[in-house]
Every structure is written in structure tokens, then in C-alpha cells.
């Protein structure tokens, strides 16, 4: 018996490049595709954040499309979290501005 579509793990990959106005959805999928997205991210040292609610909303965005304005705040908080993690990993003190 196969799992219901909603029971499968989902994953969404975002890309935010300099000069872009907003992040874009560059990969998304469920089941084996989600596992491949997560595996590839980890392989390349990309941090993986788990948020079923955010992933569910991002799954509704078409590939290569900007995230919708309704998700700006949630994604901005995620990017701030990633920035914090990357600073800690690189050993830059919190009180040092770059």
C-alpha cells in the first residue's frame, strides 16, 4: 500500500541571488524527490530547516517563481536564521559587524 500524498515528506529549495528582488522556488517535491533535494543540500553544505507549515505554503509556488509577498516575513526570518548559523559556523563573533 502506498502512502497518501499528504503523508510523504516534502521539500522546497529556495535561491536568493544578489540583485534579485525576492527568493525563488528552484526545486520542490515529495517523497523520493524531497529526499534527493535534502540530500543534495546537505552534500553541498546547505543548511536544511524543517517547517512543515512553510514548506506546505511554498509547495504551492510554481518553480522558478518568486515567493509571494504573504511569505516575505517567514522567509526573511528563515534567511536571518541561516545568516546567524553561518556566522557561528565561521567563528565570527556576534558583536562584530561585517
Characterise the protein shown here.
- With 98 residues, the protein is α+β, with helices and mostly antiparallel strands.
- It has one domain: secretion proteins EscU (name from scop).
- Helix content is 39%, strand content 13%.
- It has three helices and two strands; from the N terminus they run ββααα.
- It has helices spanning 32-43, 52-58, 72-90, and strands spanning 10-15, 24-30.
- A two-stranded antiparallel ribbon has the order 1-2.
- The longest helix has 19 residues, at 72-90.
- The protein is globular.
Calculate the terminal CA-CA distance, rounded to whole Å. Answer: 53 Å
Write down the CATH topology. name from scop
> Roughly how many Å is the radius of gyration?
15 Å
**Relevant CATH superfamily:** secretion proteins EscU
Number of domains: 1
Number of H/I helices: 3
Widest sheet: strand ordering? 1-2
> Which descriptor suits the 3D outline?
globular
CATH architecture: 3-Layer(aba) Sandwich
Topology, please?
Blueprint: E1 10-15, E2 24-30, H1 32-43, H2 52-58, H3 72-90
Antiparallel strand pairs: 1-2
Summarize the structure.
The protein has helices spanning 32-43, 52-58, 72-90, and strands spanning 10-15, 24-30. It is of the alpha+beta class and 98 residues long. The longest helix has 19 residues, at 72-90.
Amino acid at each position: 500500500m502506498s502512502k497518501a500524498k499528504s503523508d510523504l515528506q516534502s521539500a522546497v529549495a529556495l535561491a536568493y541571488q544578489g540583485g534579485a528582488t525576492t527568493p525563488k522556488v528552484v526545486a520542490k517535491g515529495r517523497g523520493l524527490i524531497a529526499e534527493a533535494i535534502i540530500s543534495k543540500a546537505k552534500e553541498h553544505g546547505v543548511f536544511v530547516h524543517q517547517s512543515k507549515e512553510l514548506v506546505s505554503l511554498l509547495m504551492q509556488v510554481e518553480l522558478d517563481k518568486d515567493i509571494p509577498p504573504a511569505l516575505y516575513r517567514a522567509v526573511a526570518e528563515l534567511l536571518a536564521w541561516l545568516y546567524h548559523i553561518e556566522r557561528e559556523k565561521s567563528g565570527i563573533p556576534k558583536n562584530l559587524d561585517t
